Amino acid sequence: MNRLISAIAVSCAVLTTSVQAKSKCDVELGHGLIITDNEIRIVDDGQTRIQINNDSQLFILGRWIELDQQGEAVVREYSLGIRDTVPELVNLATDGVNLGLSAIEQVVEGMSDKEPEVLKTQLQYVERALMDKFKRGDDFFFIAPQSLSKIDDFFTKEISQKIHSAVHGSLGSILVSLGDAFKSREGNIEDRINDMGQRMEIISKEIDKSLQKKAHQLEEKAEEYCECLNSLDKTEEKLQRIVPELVAYDLVQIRS
Predict the structure, then answer these.
(1) CA 139 to the chain's CA centroid
(2) Is residue 24 within 8 Å of residue 16, measured between CB atoms?
(3) Alpha helices in the chain (DSSP H)
């Protein structure tokens, strides 16, 4: 996978250092993508529809499409165009979010003797929501069908709301712990409640700040890649003219 990462963004880097998108680039991915060192798979509902092996061999629904030299060149251009953009977007989307969730868990745990079960459950919902859209492993990247121009909404609205629910949903369990401590005369409950309120406020502010920063980074990157995605869309159209069956699996959809 290191070889893959080091090869990413060669052509896009040339485009984006000289071109910065001035207006919002409304791009949608019509299908999910799984990218490994040797394969690119376009998927729907967990089923592989299109597969490209070694940036050269094209398969549609498991059937190998024999191409001439020109067709193979277009497949390679298309495959490398996908590699230029998607892994970096996935990296940007996932970097720091899981660390942030761990930090929230540790802070909330620090307010009571044990981790509230509701927090653990809610944070699992957050992680699942994130992984449904973006996922990476040691040897793959995944991105779900979505509008790249609305990634900011996903973080500032959906993920933010889920994290806030996780943190504030833990208040009841924490208060129960504090009440138990008070009954057993362990510590000053008023000081602990005041401290909890202050920590909750700090957590909420940091969550919003972090997610807004993440959303802004992704929005900027999507705009930065506008030229590259337009180029990828043109390459896809060229490949569709060579292999008309691919029209049914249109990946890059430029809305404006």
Answers:
(1) 16
(2) no
(3) 2-7, 10-18, 69-94, 97-109, 117-133, 151-153, 160-169, 171-183, 189-224, 226-242
- Write the Ramachandran bin of 116: left for phi over 0, alpha for psi from -120 to 50, otherwise beta: beta
* Region of residue 200 (phi > 0: left; psi between -120 and 50: alpha; otherwise: beta): alpha
- Burial (CB < 10 A; 0-12, 13-18, 19+), residue 137, is exposed
Which amino acid is it at 256? S
Whole-angstrom CA distances from 100 to 103, 105, 127, 209, 221 are 5, 9, 11, 12, 21
Residue linked to tokens 């984006």: 16
**Measuring CA to CA, how many Å separate 144 from each of 28, 30, 40?**
10, 9, 14
Residue 154 corresponds to which amino acid? F
In tens digits, the chain (256 residues) has pLDDT values of 544 444 444 445 433 433 343 445 688 899 999 999 999 999 998 899 999 999 999 999 999 999 999 999 999 999 999 998 889 888 878 876 665 666 666 666 655 555 566 667 777 888 888 889 999 989 999 999 998 778 777 877 787 777 777 766 666 565 555 555 545 545 555 666 666 667 667 766 776 777 777 777 777 776 777 788 888 999 999 999 999 999 999 999 987 6
AA letter at 73: A
The owner of tokens 């059937």 is: 63
Structure tokens at 99: 């660390």
- The one-letter code for the residue type at 189 is I
